[in-house]
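Final report, section 2: Outcomes. Of the targets proposed, XdhC family protein is the one most frequently requested by collaborating groups, and we therefore present its record in full.
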Amino acid sequence: MRQQPWSDAQAEHGRILVLSDNPISQAIASIATAAGRDVLVEAVDDGGEGLEPRAGDAVVLCDHDAPDAPRVLRAALASEAAYVAMMASRRRAAGLLDELVAEGVDVTRLHVPAGHDLGGKGPGEIALSVVAEIVAESYGRPGGPMRG
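The predicted structure is given below as tokens.
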């Protein structure tokens, strides 16, 4: 009998909440949906009504220049979200991080830049690295090659 390398049993995972709507967030939604995750892309730059992280959710801020980025990050970092990330280089995110730290927000859980270092440059490749990091985190894994 041939063994299958996958399991039909689906683990329970939180949602992936993404702000805002752009090519990277659309690619995240496509890849994460294919991986069996529920995704909410909030198109409104102010965080809209939908970004209320629950335990186990992943929050990805795909636009660090969104008007309500600080509020979204504050709420995500104060929540029981399992993963909180921002698409930006550390240099570009420095001002926002400094603002949050000055307010007393603990940013140690914040993944900046979001994703694994795959070297990709296009929206789909960047999204793949973010979804890979979310999946790895949800299983308590560091990511990286499986070969030993």
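The first helix runs from residue 23 to 34.
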